[in-house]
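QA checklist item 7 of 12: single-chain prediction sanity check.
[x] sequence parsed
[x] length recorded as 181
[x] structure emitted
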Amino acid sequence: MKFLPVTPDRWPDLEQFFESRGGPKHCWCMVFRPMSSSDRRAGAPAKKHALAQTVAANTPVGILAYDDDEPVAWCSIAPLETYTNLRTRSYVSDGSDTDGVWSIACFYIRSAYRRQGMTTQLIKAAIDYAQDNGAMVIEAYPVDYDSPSYSYMGRIGTFQRLGFQEVGMAGTRRHIMRLQL
């Protein structure tokens, strides 16, 4: 496996991955990113366009896992400031300055690669990528194993095993967890 950041030259890989069978083509990982309300209501094509523009602007959006040259998994990791809806929904644990804080917002793993430790590998690669780009803190919003929703944000135990500490809650299901780098 190799883990690479999504850059403008890798946009075709991300596009192929999201549009593949079962891929996250309904959201285009724009749930927490800035979009106008009219574009949000316009659906998947507008979300795809917005993510493509973000990638074209060299704004970090996440990493892809590759098995040989085939993208097989995704982790949304980017500076917290680029996730405006994470901030406006008060997911930031203490309201403090967000400089140097990067957030892991979601995962998507092809079914053939699930239950094999891929989430752990993605988190480790995301930490390295964020740290290489100046992150001082990684924040994530996982749920308990029995949570009926938001599993795309990961499970709390996975983050605990990697040294993340719980610092609060975001609503009733999402735990706010931080890793100080």
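[x] summary fact logged: The two ends are 24 Å apart (CA to CA).
[ ] second reviewer sign-off
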